[in-house]
Amino acid sequence: MPRISVKVDGIAYEEDVEPRLLLVHLLRERLGKTGTPAGCDTSNCGACTVMLDGKTVKSCSVLAVQADGSDIVTIEGLAANGSLHPMQRAFHEEHALQCGFCTPGMVMAAIDLVRDTPDPSEEAIREGLEGNLCRCTGYCNIVRAVKRGAQEMGQAVKSS
Amino acid sequence: MIPASFDYVRPGSLAEACQELAADEDAKVIAGGQSLLPLLRLRLAYPTKLVDVARLPELAGVHDRGDHVFIGAMTTHDEVMRSGVVAAGAPLLALATAMVADPAVRHRGTFGGSLAHADPAGDLPAVVLALEGVLVARSAQGEREIPAADFFVDYLESSLRQGEVLVGVKIPKLGDGWGFHYEKFHRTAQAWAIVGVAAAVRRSNGSIQEARIGLTNMGTTPVRARAAETALEGLELGDGLRQACEEAAADTSPPADLHAQPDYRRHLARVLTHRAVRTAAGAP
């Protein structure tokens, strides 16, 4: 069985994995990172989105062995010193969720978008989140939250 | 949904990858895995072994080589979209790649992978066909160049042989006077094209000198709309454009599925070809 090393939310792990083990299952079942849900299982819905070496991926469509040597950040690794990431806070403030199942993936995709496009238009937000499905909200509050999160991420950069 | 068991190797060199593939006819290349992994999970494919080529340096990078752009097979869609070399030398490819799936899939999925997968519903095969790209494959026997017209053999089947790995693709640069467009018709943002049309048009003195049109999802392989290309040649920009594009579905055998019947796909091919050609030619 191949042995892989990964860093997940700042902690290094060495794991023996079956080649067919999916990254989402490594995260949830081996490492207890259940903040990342497995949704559609077919790289459609984006609920399982995490950052792999700084870029979003759908963890249901990556083998754990492919992630060998990578630095992974899940929704559980965003909060720093007990305070939510600005994008998490914006989702909370703008009530950008109902059932919450898509939220971890939405937040990861939103952060990725804002790193690339610091002040995204509504159209850019909708395009940037095209790989993430929400079946509750109708997306209006999500778009609002991403705008607000983007502003707060910008301010956080300026003040740091 | 968990894939059936398979072995996994990550060769350190291209030569080693070719050996692994030559030794086992049921071994399969994995690149970004964005097409292969769903197939494995749905148990539509049962490879004995996955040969991971994603990190091979021989397959990386985008290079300006004078008369063509060379794109390493493992260049991700995201890298293709952001490449200044692609934007300058193959703008149609940059445009179409931005319409592939969604950002997370584009971070993993590779240019070479989506061509080797040979899905006629994929956007890039029709684009490479229209741009008359040349695919470069390597095996223990050496290197082989395959024109795009000979590469796509059947549904999910390319002309790559056992033991061969797609190294990259040469995309000839088209000179001045060419315009481009990719029209994709799909029902939801990240979905496959029900039909897509890649058009490259050379215009001079208010008329079309040459048109190259690649069709997505209009058969078991990507196809050229040859009849429409011929009808467009020498045509003055104006009312005749729409009529010439009526030929776009000639000699095609589009599939029937949940999204569309063949006659509807033929209709889409005609309408989308008109839109793509009109935009590519800069016509009103």
Query: Helical amount among residues of chain B, as a percent range?
Result: 25-40%
CATH architecture of the largest domain in chain A: Roll
Beta-strand share of residues of chain B: 25-35%
**What is the strand arrangement across the widest sheet of chain B?**
4-5-10-6-7
Number of separate helices of chain B: 12
Task: Give the second-level CATH assignment, the architecture of the largest domain in chain B.
Answer: 2-Layer Sandwich
The portion of residues forming beta strands of chain A comes to 5-15%
Radius of gyration of chain A: 16 Å
What does this structure look like?
The complex is a heterodimer of chains A (160) and B (284). Chain A is 36% helix and 14% strand. Chain A has 160 residues and is α+β, with helices and mostly antiparallel strands. Chain A has two domains: 3-77, Beta-grasp domain (Ubiquitin-like (UB roll), Roll); 86-159, DNA polymerase, domain 1 (Orthogonal Bundle). A five-stranded mixed sheet of chain A has the order 2-1-5-3-4, covered by helices on one side. The model of chain A has no long low-confidence stretch (mean pLDDT 96). Chain B has 284 residues and is α+β, with helices and mostly antiparallel strands. Chain B is built from twelve helices and 14 strands. In chain B, the strands form four sheets. Chain B has a five-stranded antiparallel sheet. Chain B has a four-stranded antiparallel sheet with strand order 11-12-13-14. A three-stranded parallel sheet of chain B has the order 1-3-2, with helices on one face. In chain B, helix 5 packs antiparallel against helix 8. Chain B starts with 6 loop residues before the first strand and ends with a helix. Chain A binds chain B through residues 2, 18-20, 22, 25, 41-44, 46, 49, 52, 55-58, 60-63, 65-66, 68, 109, 112-113, 126-128, 130-132, and chain B through 1-8, 10, 30, 33-34, 37-38, 40-42, 50, 52, 54, 78, 101-105, 107-108, 189-190.
